[in-house]
TrEMBL record:
The gene is metB. This is homocysteine desulfhydrase. Belongs to the trans-sulfuration enzymes family. InterPro entries: Cys/Met-Metab_PyrdxlP-dep_enz, Cys_met_metab_PP, PyrdxlP-dep_Trfase, PyrdxlP-dep_Trfase_major, PyrdxlP-dep_Trfase_small. Pfam families: Cys_Met_Meta_PP (PF01053). Signal peptide: none annotated. It comes from Agromyces mediolanus (Corynebacterium mediolanum).
Length: 360
């Protein structure tokens, strides 16, 4: 078996995305790590059984780990990756998390609270001092920056330092920013979580997650959790995710450029109460006038934009987030989250403007 080839450490992230996790540069070796469809291996090696490892996972993990600056462990989904991190918290431990977080994460936290497994303190991630104070006695600070879907930004280095001062681990969901816009491990974070379903794979055809850490003991605990719990990715999903990762920088650059252009065009629109954009990435949140009803009319009137709950693909999608009962009631009822794709920006803008007109 050919081991994945690590990218050179003295090149830029865009080059790492293309080169990491490749087979060795030897005659007749393929450029890409082949798809390994195997549940069983000949005994005596490092793998033994398909629940413990797969060369297709290893290639993806090599590439993502190189981008984030740590060791990656892949999982069956983003929420499985979240679950693995939360299982690091001891029974009765305190988790500090933003009140505006991905609903799947909040549901995971609340379920553990209801069962008595952990305690949770919800905070405003933009209030650095309050977050640090809440970390006293905490086992884990979990946060997103930007948050989903409020798009609030936390001061990552300061929050990490504040949590570490109280002895808490820090896990950051980096799905929106990607390692091309933010590298939390470089800022001291212990764990970085991704829904690889989104920007990393980038084509709305993969469900997969990953956790990255530069702590060998934590990495082994994550691998053990995956092996025992069975939340393993399929080899095909890992193969597709790595193929998508190769073009992350190209897709993100284009989508981000589109997002910035749209923010400029939509700013001050009379039918929008607010345009939220964190200054990077390709997610925008619009607060549509008329509350839930106005936002629903706006979404229904879109023709090019697709009404869908996921994000990070090459196509542009939009969704009113409060249609989900689990979404925080502090999120405006008329907030519509936009995942900006790579279509021509003039077409995207024209469709949003006609939808706003139709929603009046």
């Amino acid at each position: 078996m050919t081991q994945p080839r690590a990218a050179a450490t003295d090149v830029r992230a865009e080059t790492v995305a293309v080169t990491a996790g490749r087979p060795a540069h030897e005659p007749d070796e393929p450029l890409n790590t082949p798809l390994h469809l195997a549940s069983t291996y000949v005994a005596g090696g490092a793998l033994e059984y398909g629940r413990y490892g797969n060369p297709s996972w290893a290639a993806f993990e090599e590439a993502l780990g190189a981008l984030e600056g740590g060791r990656a462990t892949s999982f069956a989904s983003g929420i499985a990756a979240v679950d693995a991190v939360l299982e690091l918290v001891p029974t009765g431990g305190l988790v500090v998390a933003p009140r505006h977080s991905y609903t799947g994460t909040v549901l995971q936290l609340d379920a553990r609270v209801e069962s008595g497994r952990i305690r949770v303190a919800y905070v405003d991630v933009t209030d650095t001092a309050a977050v640090a104070a809440a970390c006293e006695g905490a086992a884990l600070l979990w946060f997103e920056s930007p948050t989903n879907p409020a798009l609030e930004l936390g001061d990552v280095p300061a929050l990490v330092a504040g949590a570490h001062a109280h002895g808490a681990l820090v896990a950051i969901d980096n799905t929106f920013a990607t390692p091309l816009r933010q590298r939390p491990i470089a800022d001291g974070a212990d764990l970085v979580v991704h829904s690889a379903t989104k920007y990393l794979s980038g084509h709305s055809d993969v469900i997969m997650g990953a956790v990255v850490t530069n702590d060998d003991a934590l990495a082994q605990r994550l691998v053990d959790r995956r092996s025992l719990g069975g939340a393993i990715p399929s080899a095909f999903e890992a193969f597709l995710a790595l193929r998508g990762l190769r073009t992350l920088h190209v897709r993100l650059d284009r989508a981000e450029r589109n997002a910035r252009d749209l923010v400029e065009r939509l700013a001050g629109h009379p039918d929008l109460q607010e345009v939220r954009y964190p200054g990077f990435g390709a997610v925008i949140s619009l607060v549509v006038a008329g509350g839930a009803e106005g936002a629903d009319r706006f979404v229904a009137a879109a023709r090019l934009w697709v009404h869908a709950t996921s994000l990070g693909g090459v196509e542009s999608t939009l969704e009113r987030r409060r249609r989900w009962a689990a979404e925080a009631d502090t999120i405006p009822a008329g907030l519509v989250r936009l995942s900006v794709g790579i279509e021509h920006v003039d077409d995207l803008a024209a469709d949003l403007l006609q939808a706003l007109d139709a929603a009046r």
